[in-house]
Write a structure and sequence with these properties.
The protein is an alpha+beta fold. The protein contains 5 helices and 3 strands, in the order ααβααββα. The longest helix has 15 residues, at about 70-80.
Length: about 80
């Protein structure tokens, strides 16, 4: 899924905003939403596929952070409007 499509959902945008402050465990992210942990997990999967977040294992926890690859794609698109050729 392209990064812009992934960010069309308000829950996914909020997850990205949370991770902009620093890495969080999957449980800490899920605790910020009224939906189930499984629903938040699906949002995280979409964000991973869009290369907006990355995940790493730490003992029994999954730690999420922002992924620069998808964010760079968005930045590149936006720069076309601020620096027209």
């Amino acid at each position: 899924m392209p990064p812009f499509a992934a960010l069309a959902d308000p829950t996914r945008r909020r997850i990205v905003e949370l991770l902009a402050r620093g890495e969080l465990s999957a449980g800490a992210i899920a605790a910020q939403f009224p939906s189930t942990a499984a629903a938040v997990s699906q949002h995280l999967r979409v964000l991973r596929e869009a290369r907006l977040v990355r995940v790493r294992g730490e003992a029994q926890r999954r730690i999420y952070g922002l992924d620069g690859a998808g964010l760079a794609e968005i930045e590149e698109w936006l720069m076309a409007f601020t620096n027209p050729r």
